[in-house]
Amino acid sequence: MADAAPFLEITNLTAGYKRGLPIVQDLSLQVAGGEVVTVIGPNGAGKSTVLKAIAGLIVIEGGTIRLSGSDIVCTAPDRLGQFDLSYVPQTANIFTTLTVAQNLALAARRCRTAPQERIAAMQELFPDLSDHRNIRGGGLSGGQRQMLAIAMAMIAEPRIILMDEPTAGLSPKASQDVLKVVRSIAEDGVSVLLVEQNARLALGISDRAYILADGRNQLDGSARDILNDPAVAEIYLGGRRKGAA
Ligand SMILES: Nc1ncnc2c1ncn2[C@@H]1O[C@H](COP(=O)(O)OP(=O)(O)OP(=O)(O)O)[C@@H](O)[C@H]1O
Ligand SMILES: [Mg+2]
């Protein structure tokens, strides 16, 4: 159940890859505790750039990014764990030459307490990973890789996870499985800020959504309202659903 107070609060963010050339402009966005919030929008809209800004990877020219009330702008990416934040980038999110067990052990180095217990907890949460513990990351299916990346992000018990297109390149079944896991993470009280191209599927497991275009807020609202708005569906969700009135 979502907690009404915003855990992540972005206000009037302007950020980009080069000073003076902002990609994201005047963007505001909030994620409450235990909420799944999806960011959708056309290619090049700036969705991944928003996540990189929160993760401390690019130049912030204006605005604030608060986690639990603390401003994290200017925090080095490797120190964001102290604010209970994990980031799962779209690619290169696991070590392909290491086994599943080695990937989890590396991620567990960020655990504050009892890394072995956290590894065991992740193997329980993702039984398929446990079955493949001695397989190298490069030998996993796309869905298993994403599950491993999510497990590595979850291991240090974050309060919020940023995920960039976890279903990219996956089959419809694997996409559904990954998004089911995302929903279950939120049910346990962890907030998720999700970027997805697979907009309908993502909205189906989200509480709220933001639509971005040209690096700016276009629209936001409950995921259900956005899914059911015919004008939004026409412009941003690839037309009406088959069989919809
Ligand atoms: N490393 C970079 N250096 C300079 N510009 C970049 C860089 N990465 C992205 N951009 C530019 O920033 C803009 C937004 O890109 P971004 O990757 O955030 O879009 P997106 O909404 O995630 O798109 P997609 O749906 O294709 O993933 C684009 O114009 C892109 O060319
Ligand atoms: Mg992107």
Automatic annotation (TrEMBL):
The family database entries (InterPro entries) matched by this protein are listed as: AAA+_ATPase (IPR003593), ABC_transporter-like_ATP-bd (IPR003439), ABC_transporter-like_CS (IPR017871), BCAA_Transport_ATP-bd_LivF (IPR052156), P-loop_NTPase (IPR027417)
Q: Which GO terms describe its biological process?
A: L-amino acid transport
Which lineage?
A: Bacteria, Pseudomonadati, Pseudomonadota, Alphaproteobacteria, Hyphomicrobiales
| Keyword terms of this UniProt record | Amino-acid transport, ATP-binding, Nucleotide-binding, Transport
Instruction: Show the Gene3D superfamilies listed in the entry.
Output: P-loop containing nucleotide triphosphate hydrolases
Q: What family name appears in the similarity comment? A: Belongs to the ABC transporter superfamily.
**What is this protein's record name?**
ABC transporter ATP-binding protein
Q: Which organism is it from?
A: Hoeflea prorocentri
A GO molecular function annotation here is: ATP binding
- Identify the domain of life: Bacteria
ABC transporter domain location? 8-239
